[in-house]
Design a protein that fits this description.
The chain is built from 16 helices and 13 strands. By secondary structure, the chain is of the alpha/beta class.
Length: 374
């Protein structure tokens, strides 16, 4: 048996790609309208942009009612991060600080380095307890300077799966506000983390209503299963409508130079789902289905490890959330999994739970037990 635990996309219990039923139905409806394939505007599909703002900030958001959010459609999460990095560097200058959690998604470092920003890691993860390190993060925030940029994962932190609690987010918000930092949320798992898009957006909405200098990079790859369509958005919350217009112009200027205009097909699919009550309900059921499988595989892996007689604590597997689990395996143990059991994951021990199935979880647990037992 071979098991790929490095995959960054959802898989069903047979290890196959999963196409959401809501997406399939949206495609049928779009096809039946016989739409064209003309260029989108530089900012993207205007309906998609409006819906994306409401999806992230909420339909009753103060910042939306005040017309203070500048949003453009982007090339999924990576493209939105890259566009904002370029814009931030153009305003603050090359060498400006970007604080990234340690650890974080590996591509974050590349994106901001290429834009000329200075990457500074901040404390996030306690490797001893395999949990979020609130004290370490607060200590790191205290060392920042006014106007620095700090990136946070809105939910389902990649790679650790460790998120702050609601009360911890409030403490973090206060600490960031005292330093007057620019907060950049990477929002790649809204709806896919908990199965509830409203719940997964709570942190972003709290920060928005609390008056932060706020930026949100939104991806629709994981939560809509539109990996190859490269659909996302970049939203900047501004102080007033005049500033919003100037920021919008800046975003479009850089977008024009980087990729001219974004793709239309995936944006149409997202818009079709979010504007059709029946499709939106279907999509929410799709999210719950994906989330429940991930949660069940976490529980199964922990149960099999404990059933194998492991004396180690595997509580963190079920405490963490989202697609990834920071297993606590070291690089030597990862090498043994690969060489002796043909199980493949990243050297830091990150496991994609999407690669775990009812058919391989027992084998996986036995292998992990063998490489970790005293």
């Amino acid at each position: 048996m071979k098991i790929n635990l490095g995959v960054g996309a959802y898989r069903d219990d047979n290890g196959k790609p999963f196409i959401l039923s809501s997406v399939r139905e949206a495609e049928k409806r779009i096809f039946e309208r016989n739409v064209d394939h003309e260029y989108a505007a530089i900012q993207g599909n205007d309906l998609f942009i409006k819906l994306s703002e409401q999806f992230v900030f909420g339909e009753n958001s103060t910042v939306l009612k005040d017309n203070r959010v500048a949003t453009v459609q982007c090339l999924s999460g990576t493209g939105s991060l890259r566009l904002f990095a370029e814009c931030f560097a153009s305003v603050k200058g090359r060498g400006a600080n970007i604080y990234l959690p340690n650890p974080t998604w590996a591509n974050h470092t590349n994106i901001f380095r290429i834009a000329g920003l200075n990457h500074v890691p901040y404390n996030y993860y306690d490797s001893t307890s395999c949990s979020f390190d609130i004290d370490g993060m607060l200590n790191s925030i205290s060392e920042t300077k006014e106007g620095d940029l700090i990136l946070m994962h809105a939910c389902a932190h990649n790679p650790t799966g460790c998120d702050p609690s609601k009360d911890q987010w409030k403490i973090i918000s206060d600490a960031v506000r005292r330093k007057n930092l620019v907060v950049l949320f990477d929002n790649a798992y809204q709806g896919y983390s908990s199965g509830d898009p409203e719940r997964d957006a709570e942190t972003i909405r709290y920060f928005a209503e609390s008056g932060h200098n706020l930026v949100v990079c939104q991806s629709y790859s994981k939560n809509f299963g539109l990996y190859g369509q490269r659909i996302g958005s970049l939203s900047v919350v501004t102080a007033n409508e005049d500033e919003k217009d100037r920021v919008f112009s800046l975003l479009k200027s850089h977008a024009r130079a980087m990729y001219s205009n974004p793709p239309i097909y995936g944006a149409r699919i997202v818009a079709e789902i979010l504007t059709s009550p029946d499709l939106k309900r279907m999509w929410q059921r799709d999210c719950v289905r994906m989330t429940q499988r991930i949660i069940s595989m976490r529980s199964a892996l922990r149960n099999h490890l404990e059933g194998a007689g492991s004396t180690k604590s595997w509580k963190h597997i079920t405490d963490q959330s989202g697609m990834f689990c920071y297993s606590g395996l070291n690089s030597e143990q990862v090498d043994r999994l690969r060489d002796e059991y043909h199980i493949y994951c990243t050297s830091d021990g990150r496991i994609s739970i999407a690669g775990v199935t009812s058919g391989n979880v027992a084998y996986l647990a036995k292998a992990i037990h063998e490489v970790t037992k005293e």
